[in-house]
Amino acid sequence: MKRIPTKQEILDWISANPTLTSKRDIAKAFGIKGADRIDLKRILKELEAEGHLEKRKRSYRDPDRLPPVSVLQVKAPNADGDLFARPLEWHGEGVEPIVLIISRASDPALGEGDRILARLTQVHEEDHNYEARLIRRIGANPRRVVGIFRKGAEGGRIVPIDKAGSTEWLVAEDAALGAKDGELVEAEQAGPKNRMGLPRARIVERLGDPSAPKAVSLIAIHQHGIPDDFPDDVIAEADRAKPVGLKGREDLRDIPLLTIDPSDARDHDDACYAHADDDPKNPGGHVIWVAIADVAAYVRPGSALDREARNRGNSTYFPDRVVPMLPDRLSGDLCSLHEGVPRACIAVRMRIDANGNKIDHRFVRGLMRSAASLHYAEVQEAIDGTPNDRTGPLLESVLKPLYAAYGALKTARNERQPLDLDLPERKIVLNDKGEVESVAFRERLDAHRLIEEFMILANVAAAETLIAKRSPLLFRVHEEPAPEKLESLRETAQAAGLNLAKGQVLQTRHLNALLNAAAGTEDAELINLSTLRSMAQAYYSPENFGHFGLALRNYAHFTSPIRRYADLIVHRALISAHGWGKDGLTADEIERLEEIATHISDTERRSMMAERDTTDRYLAAYLSERVGNEFTGRISGIARFGAFVKLDKTGADGLVPVRSLGREFFHFDAEAGTLMGADTGLTIAIGQRVTVRLTEATPVTGGLELELLSIEDQAMPRGGGRGKSGRPTRRKAVSTKRKKDKIKRKVERKRRQR
């Protein structure tokens, strides 16, 4: 009979062999066989009951020690840039162990909140107890929800605020964080999702009164997980930054570069200047300067500022606030090209011919001083004959040469034929209380188009330079539309009596021909929207697949490094390619370009969704006082549950629920994009002009519910055939196949009639 080990011997074995802790491993280590295993099992159970061991499936471990392979949640980097993690499997007593993540060159970048599976080694250092080496990233943070807390007898519930009408969440009393009834809260999933019943959550932050005007953008920030507070080490690093001097730079301070931005611009990261080319070999040509804030001089690779900027990916803009990529010390001060103040920049000098074609260009790292900070409207007014005190002195020497160069670029643009959509942008105007004062469409001036063309030309120059120097970079990619989306656009055009040719390589000029044919007709907005929906989404990539929408082969974002991390990468690539300093693109960044591209493409989409949701909520708040009013609009989408209508004056989108369309059954045809009444034959399709009544507006979700009054100036017919249940009566019912065939024939007949 083999001697049974003592409890202490078993504990010592488990401590020395953390990967061999099953009952079989322990028995094998001590040579225990046969009936003696019964005594070993008894001792293990006693150790478990005494709290010395914790059973995990078929193995045992010391609860005061972390398992050798653990799930960790990454914390924010500390002031030294070290990355620590919280062990999610810690169940011991006393102080939670401190885990330092040891990163390897091949590891992906980890950010605060990431959950990882890591292999742990126990150490005895002053600032940490364990060192972790990544095995793999195992997913995002626990699912989070922003909603209204409704207090109950034993805790309460969270009613989500998104328009999709998500499931409610149960909150235990000890997980409510003291939230009050009706309060806006942010919560995260608590434990695994139940197969039955409502999921459980714990409140992690109380956000206050959901009806307060200032809460609108706050909801979007929390709902989409946009970081809105800078860590202390990031602020401290920004505060230590000093203005950059002339040393090692080209002096551009005598060039009258000026910034042209919206009147409410929060930063100025681009400036421009143009003059006639005095080279006799380039008659009618122009020289264009575009200077961009040298953010790379302040945000160095691997710094706290850099990590936070990459994590954010871009700035996010709301009607009442901006969530910047960089702290205000940089975005609003040192990196902003303020009038009359020397500022570090990276500039490009470009020569174009009389037809706007670029002849050559060169980049410099310089020091500039803005001659003026102007806004679009005053620049346009000056060109149109009414200059003010600021623009008058600059009219002949600076503004008119800018417009002359723009005139040449327009010629090149017309030849290139980039996609020319006509979709007015909404502008929400708030009063001092944060309430919506008015909703209008932004005015599009030649001053806007001038800056756009100058920036596009500079972006092309950046891409071409880096390609020529064989430097890695991030391209701005916009691929061709998918064939199925083009076919859908073609069907929409045919229904409007227009044509989009088949059997040829699609170019933007073909789409522009369609848009021009629709211009001025009642179908113009429909064709523009349908064309936009057929487009692929632009993204960032280290591989160059061209930019379809701009009809450009080589394109990179260079002109907005204050608000886009992609531009900062391009700046660093230019610095390295030209040998301008040690703050260029690093080997580590080059190795991780694909990962960085994916991340910042995701953050860009996140910001777009947050901005759109905020606009929807502001519009719902604005229209909530107009419930019962009638509006005109156009059907903008069709779904099984109803039709979406875009209102003319505000651009707001509302839903006409299918349940409100009458007593008849409506068949949804996804392929045709229609709803058709089984009794009346009424067909609701994208693009139809409608009159609706606003029946409900919910600011907290941004949802609008509408009642359809007329289609194409024809009053809604009365449908029949529904019993009390709202379902078709037996007398009206036919087989599914016969019904579908009948409706398809009606749809086809109506198409031919149009």
From TrEMBL:
<dbReference type="InterPro" id="IPR011805">
    <property type="entry name" value="RNase_R"/>
</dbReference>
<keyword id="KW-0269">Exonuclease</keyword>
<keyword id="KW-0963">Cytoplasm</keyword>
<dbReference type="Pfam" id="PF00773">
    <property type="entry name" value="RNB"/>
</dbReference>
<dbReference type="InterPro" id="IPR004476">
    <property type="entry name" value="RNase_II/RNase_R"/>
</dbReference>
<comment type="similarity">
    <text>Belongs to the RNR ribonuclease family. RNase R subfamily.</text>
</comment>
<keyword id="KW-0540">Nuclease</keyword>
<dbReference type="InterPro" id="IPR040476">
    <property type="entry name" value="CSD2"/>
</dbReference>
<comment type="function">
    <text>3'-5' exoribonuclease that releases 5'-nucleoside monophosphates and is involved in maturation of structured RNAs.</text>
</comment>
<dbReference type="GO" id="GO:0008859">
    <property type="term" value="F:exoribonuclease II activity"/>
</dbReference>
<protein>
    <recommendedName>
        <fullName>Ribonuclease R</fullName>
        <ecNumber>3.1.13.1</ecNumber>
    </recommendedName>
</protein>
<dbReference type="InterPro" id="IPR022966">
    <property type="entry name" value="RNase_II/R_CS"/>
</dbReference>
<feature type="region of interest" description="Disordered">
    <location>
        <begin position="714"/>
        <end position="754"/>
    </location>
</feature>
<dbReference type="GO" id="GO:0006402">
    <property type="term" value="P:mRNA catabolic process"/>
</dbReference>
<dbReference type="InterPro" id="IPR001900">
    <property type="entry name" value="RNase_II/R"/>
</dbReference>
<feature type="domain" description="S1 motif">
    <location>
        <begin position="628"/>
        <end position="709"/>
    </location>
</feature>
<keyword id="KW-0378">Hydrolase</keyword>
<dbReference type="InterPro" id="IPR050180">
    <property type="entry name" value="RNR_Ribonuclease"/>
</dbReference>
<dbReference type="GO" id="GO:0005829">
    <property type="term" value="C:cytosol"/>
</dbReference>
<feature type="compositionally biased region" description="Basic residues">
    <location>
        <begin position="724"/>
        <end position="754"/>
    </location>
</feature>
<dbReference type="InterPro" id="IPR003029">
    <property type="entry name" value="S1_domain"/>
</dbReference>
<dbReference type="InterPro" id="IPR012340">
    <property type="entry name" value="NA-bd_OB-fold"/>
</dbReference>
<dbReference type="GO" id="GO:0003723">
    <property type="term" value="F:RNA binding"/>
</dbReference>
<dbReference type="Pfam" id="PF00575">
    <property type="entry name" value="S1"/>
</dbReference>
<dbReference type="Pfam" id="PF17876">
    <property type="entry name" value="CSD2"/>
</dbReference>
<keyword id="KW-0694">RNA-binding</keyword>
